[in-house]
């Protein structure tokens, strides 16, 4: 077993969407998953709530890994495996996708020569190994080089950057096998109406008011409410069992998303938990799944769609701003089918070089 203490590991760090992650090619990591995970934990500085001796940023949003290599699938150019690393706990999970980290996968693939760059823009077909779903990332490559500078702003990220447009197919039932994992548009859990939906991310949707919230609470207020977080944890564990995910105690899914009327010019307010601590914004695929669920008649929060203007683009409010998602659902089908989903993100390369793990 190689410890990599002397040689280090070839690594690129990107800020992708509202997350930050370490990107690797498979050949630069151990082939054995247990050895690989042990190395990644040492690189990230886990377990330690501060991750002071590693590259993590002491939050789940900055403790993420993408492993990107050529794909054997005729429908994809590259394969992307996402791993969520714990912070205080030495955990590595492959049970979910990450749409934010996905935003950096295409640029990384071009930077490493895995996909040739176009002269103006490049589209990369990505197989999301975690779920088998496909995504196409399109981003500017003037002169055959990835351009990170641009004028697109996304909430939760300072400044602006070049757009990365993500279009999804095959994400329906990503982890559970069904768009509606329980087989119903609406269920009741502990007396609380819920909608369980999986269009790229398994989420349990409930009304904020059912948890004694207005939906306007700040991230800090949610994080300081120990009783709320305890209830969210118990709630999502039971929801996970309903969704066929088994014991969700040590799992990063399902996510809990509480919805409410919009307050800042958007179309729906959200407060998301990942899976227990509140999210400073909302994950890309969680937002896609929530909007998919809201569009289904009879679902929790469907009444919020009554005033939505025509079109497929939905403005989702979250604690640090807004995210626009594009979702089209065939509600006449039995069961309902997700026809299209997409979102615009940005990414920026932070460093490319050699990372050295904790001994």
From TrEMBL:
Listed SUPFAM superfamilies: Diaminopimelate epimerase-like
UniProt xrefs under InterPro entries: OMA_tautomer-like, PrpF-like
Domain of life, source organism: Bacteria
Leader peptide range in chain numbering: none
Keyword match GTP-binding: no
UniProtKB keywords: Isomerase
Pfam family name, one: PrpF
PANTHER family (UniProt xref): ACONITATE ISOMERASE-RELATED, ISOMERASE YBHH-RELATED
Family: Belongs to the PrpF family.
NCBIfam families (UniProt xref): OMA_tautomer
Protein name, UniProt field: 4-oxalomesaconate tautomerase
Annotated source species: Dactylosporangium darangshiense
């Amino acid at each position: 077993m190689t410890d990599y203490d002397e040689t280090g590991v070839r690594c690129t760090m990107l800020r992708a969407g509202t997350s930050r992650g370490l990107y690797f090619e498979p050949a630069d990591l151990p082939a054995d998953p247990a050895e690989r995970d042990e190395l990644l934990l040492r690189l990230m500085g886990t377990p330690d709530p501060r991750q002071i001796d590693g590259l993590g940023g002491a939050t789940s949003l900055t403790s993420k890994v993408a492993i990107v290599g050529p794909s054997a699938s005729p429908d994809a150019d590259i394969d992307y495996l996402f791993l969520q690393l714990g912070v205080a706990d030495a955990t590595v999970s492959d049970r979910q996708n990450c749409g934010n980290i996905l935003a950096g996968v295409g640029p990384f693939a071009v930077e490493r020569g895995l996909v040739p760059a176009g002269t103006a823009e490049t589209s990369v077909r990505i197989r999301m190994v975690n779920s088998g779903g496909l995504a196409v990332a399109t981003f500017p490559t003037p002169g055959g080089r990835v351009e990170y500078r641009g004028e697109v702003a996304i909430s939760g990220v300072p400044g602006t950057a070049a757009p990365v447009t993500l279009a999804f197919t095959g994400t329906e039932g990503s982890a559970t096998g069904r768009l509606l994992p329980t087989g119903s548009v609406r269920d009741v859990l502990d007396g609380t109406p819920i909608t369980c939906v999986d269009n790229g991310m398994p989420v349990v949707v409930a009304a904020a008011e059912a948890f004694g919230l207005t939906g306007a609470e700040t991230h800090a207020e949610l994080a300081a409410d120990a009783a709320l977080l305890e209830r969210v944890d118990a709630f999502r564990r039971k929801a996970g069992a309903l969704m066929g995910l088994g014991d969700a105690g040590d799992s990063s899914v399902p996510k809990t998303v509480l919805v409410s009327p919009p307050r800042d010019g958007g179309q729906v307010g959200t407060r998301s938990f990942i899976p227990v601590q509140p999210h400073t914004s909302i994950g890309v695929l969680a937002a896609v799944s929530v909007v998919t669920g809201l569009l289904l008649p009879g679902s929790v929060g469907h009444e919020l769609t009554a005033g939505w203007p025509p079109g497929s683009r939905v403005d989702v409010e979250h604690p640090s701003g807004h995210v626009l998602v594009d979702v089209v659902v065939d509600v006449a089908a039995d069961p309902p089918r997700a026809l299209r989903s997409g979102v615009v993100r940005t990414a920026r390369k932070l460093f490319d070089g050699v990372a050295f793990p904790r001994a």
